[in-house]
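Design review, sub-item: ligand-bound model
Attendees: FS, YL, KQ
YL presented the inputs for the zinc ion complex:
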Amino acid sequence: MLKRTRDYSQWPDVTALTREALQNENLFEDSGPQWFIGKAQRPAQTAGQAQGEREKIIKRVRRDAPDDLAAQAIADRLDSCMPDQRCMSGGCTECGRAYARWFVASTVALLGDME
Ligand SMILES: [Zn+2]
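KQ shared the predicted structure:
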């Protein structure tokens, strides 16, 4: 198994709440919660789609900004994202999707408690 060289979860841009929310690997899967988006009511992004988008971003950054150290650092961080070792970057489609799913699940639980 590949081992990440940096633990991004301890970086200052990652809040304790984000760390806690993204520890739940179930949020990175396709099981509930599920919802529809927009007027067309299309299904929310799947785990596979989020992973594909993350990989596209990494590829584009590596190709289009090879001399931009900041862009390459972001690509490195996104490239390190894997199960049980999430990058927790706001630019990561997988972590962003999981965060949205955590928010929806938490909101549904809160509203359920209010009834
Ligand atoms: Zn990530």
